[in-house]
Every structure is written in C-alpha cells, then in structure tokens.
Write a structure and sequence with these properties.
The chain has helices spanning about 10-20, 80-90, 90-100, 105-115; strands at about 25-30, 30, 50-60, 65-70. It is of the alpha+beta class and about 120 residues long. A hairpin with a 2-residue loop joins strand 3 and strand 4 (about 65-70). Helix 2 (about 80-90) packs across helix 4 (about 105-115). The two termini are about 25 Å apart. The model has no long low-confidence stretch (mean pLDDT about 90).
C-alpha cells in the first residue's frame, strides 16, 4: 500500500519483508507495525502510514493480527504515531476501536486524540 500511494518504492516493500523475517513487528493487541531499517530509508519518498485491517485476523509469526500499520519515515516523523499507538493499545477499549475502525476518519481520530 505504501508503494501504491507513492510514499515508497518497491525496494522499501522488500525491506519491510526482510526485516519481518529477522524480527516480528507484532506489538500486541492484534496489531503489527512493519517498518524498514535506517538503511531502507533511501527508498522512501515521503512520510506515510498505511492502515490495513484483517477482520478475521491473519497469522503474523504465530500471532493473530487484525490491524497492520505500515510505516514509511525518513526521519523521526513516525515517533508521534508510535506514541499514539502505545497509548491506544494500553486501553482495551481503544485497542478494540482501532481493530474495528470502519473508516479512515475513525483511524485518524483515534490517533489524533492520543497525540
């Protein structure tokens, strides 16, 4: 999705998969946050996140993931997003709202209220 929206090149998508093979980006509460390495930043054109929802869940290195938030960031732009995610995942009701969001506006509102 990050490639489709013009935020990164296919090489960045490959870097996400490569990183996932060495370290799972599952962070709990049914959420994974794939992101590249410092070396892969050269393949990012602009900062962006991609929210992917899997209502029935998918196997993510032995964990059930319902939400994948892929991150493309050339510097520290993503830190606020990670802080918001951490706050959301600490509250079971907020984590459920993230997993069950039905629109982009819902996701943005959740992330924005935690910032």
């Amino acid at each position: 999705m990050l490639v489709d929206i013009g935020a990164a090149s296919p090489a960045y998508a490959d870097a996400l998969l490569e990183r996932e093979e060495s370290v799972s980006t599952y962070i709990g509460e049914g959420v994974a946050i794939p992101h590249g390495t410092n070396e892969s930043r050269e393949h990012i054109d602009r900062a962006a996140i991609a929210y992917l929802q899997f209502p029935d869940g998918v196997d993510w290195d032995g964990n059930r993931v319902q939400v994948c938030i892929a991150i493309a960031s050339r510097s520290e732009e993503h830190v606020d997003i990670l802080q918001s995610l951490a706050a959301i995942l600490m509250v079971p009701e907020s984590a459920a709202a993230l997993r069950e969001a039905s629109s982009t506006d819902d996701v943005v509102a959740l992330l924005s209220t935690q910032a």
